[in-house]
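ENTRY TYPE: paired fold submission
RECORD: A
CONTENT: sequence, then structure tokens
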Amino acid sequence: MSTQDRVPGTPLRFGYGTNGLADLRLDDALSLLADLGYDGVGLTLDHMHLDPLAPGLAARTRRVAHRLDELGLGVTVETGARYVLDPRRKHGPSLLNPDAHDRARRVDLLVRAVRIAADLGAHAVHCFSGIVPEDTDTDTAWKRLAESLTPVLDAAASAGIPLAVEPEPGHLLATLADFHHLRRALGDPEPLGLTLDIGHCQCLEPRSPADCVRDAAPWLRHVQIEDMRRGVHEHLPFGEGEIDFPPVLAALAATGYQGLTVVELPRHSHAGPHHAEHSLPFLRHAEQAAAATSPSPAPALQQTAPPHGALSAPEGSSS
């Protein structure tokens, strides 16, 4: 959705990520979310949920699209599966891998994700940069990232699906400033957008999560949300971290963002249905409180931001 199409103050649309429901069959997870009243789902392509590498992908995608339509669920396609490409290397290979063939495997996955997203009617495809490999200098890593994303952005442009890159603590592209570095390096291509993880803002950014939302608004294509503490990259259920959510949701509503805001609890699948059941009422209550929140900017965080990529407990939506 372009910024011109946004209507400030419209209700937010909440989803839940399937990477937090990994112990459920995909159809069961979708039915659960619809029954609980969610507006959509963040669908992580993985071996248990619409495997992007297994045979019969087109037919399986059609079935999922039909089911989403039946249930009235919107969808974002996410690509943070841990071992979908390599059973031995978490998130391997990445777009930064020294081996060109390995990078091409990740590019192929992202291009597949764009095609799947188009067939599902998704509003965005999420991705991230990856961790800088050992013995790779930063300039080389940025060059690999830009070159690797170019064919993905071409596919996204052809499909009319935004590619929403997520700043991930500990990765090459870790902050909003890093996103803008990539955007400028690529010449600000129209399909390139941003996934903003609210917890990551609390964890790493120098400004408050509400300020991050306002700063990111022109490029915002996907939002992930969970609780988190300053300087600790651990996705927490709502109420267990430090984030004041009504100002964040007030800022998000003020942007007119109409994509999904997806609960991101990838390490809580053992109790996924419980957390899905309790997360939506929390967010709706915070949204109601946000309606009475002053539109004045939230103050910047007073704590000093950790050094770039320096965290006490790396985890994350891509973990």
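RECORD: B
CONTENT: sequence, then structure tokens
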Amino acid sequence: MVRVPNVTRADVVSAVRNPLAFIAARWTPQPRTVRRSALSALVMSVVIVVTGGAVRLTSSGLGCPTWPKCTGDSLTTTSAMGVHGVIEFGNRMLTYVLCAAIGWAIVAARSQKPWRRPLTRLGWAQFWVVMGNAVLGGIVVLVGLNPYTVAAHFLLSSALIAVATVMWQRTREGDGEPRPLVGRAIQQLVWFLVAATALLLVVGTVVTGAGPHAGDSSEVARMAVSWETVAKMHATLAWIVVTLTFALWFVLKAVDAPRGPLDRTRDLFLILLGQGVIGYIQYFTNLPEAMVALHMLGSGLVWIGALRVLLSLRDRPDETAELPGQANRKTLAPQL
């Protein structure tokens, strides 16, 4: 049997004052544990987007008609509210699962030895984005699913995905100064690609805000633009992103770039092709709910893919401090 250490009053006071430091002093996670915790936060940030889309597609956006309670008298859904209340309240509860995943990532990053402050800050950034988006989600309900607030709600979720992607990438590299793996012209092309992808997401929210899926079975205001016109603009932007991705892959092959940028560009290209197929199917079949849900999942994967291309353009080695005399040993090594 493993002997349980005695918990002193000082331990309790320390845990209350700074629980993260208390855990870090007693637990050192393996690097793969830190990576998995960051990945779980990223996966949940995508899941919450898809389930939020399910709320809208099932006309359950006002299943809980108020916020922060589900009804004026009940914190949770009631049987009288039916399936729409269950779906909307269930999506709210998933926020706690997301917070748990982010909390695990924060604790794992804080407990890693040596402590990597930038990694921990990325975890806390996710937490505060979630808190802000929870408040914004409540505003969405209180204003009756105003399409502009719905669009802002989705874009803030995309910001969460971006921070989670960066944290996941940082768990697999060191904290040294970033070293570029490609030339400046290619870096500028990739930044243009990422900006075009971000614009694609923004225009996609306008398509949603003007389209037929308002999120509730009752009359809900839509954006005062032509849905078909905006959808065509969205498709044009998608083709621009696809063209930029193919051009980037061609340039990387021409300059014999490292495998990392090439592989990430290939991944993005394949994701874009799949997303394009889904997009055209939903357009020509009058937006069936299942296709729209897949398209929302694809939008998250496209955004992650574009960010991974950007992050693959540099290498960050481990920061290792040289011990006294280490430089002299390196100099003498060839003579031995």
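NOTES ON RECORD B: Strands lie at 179-180, 314-315. The two ends are 51 Å apart (CA to CA).
STATUS: closed
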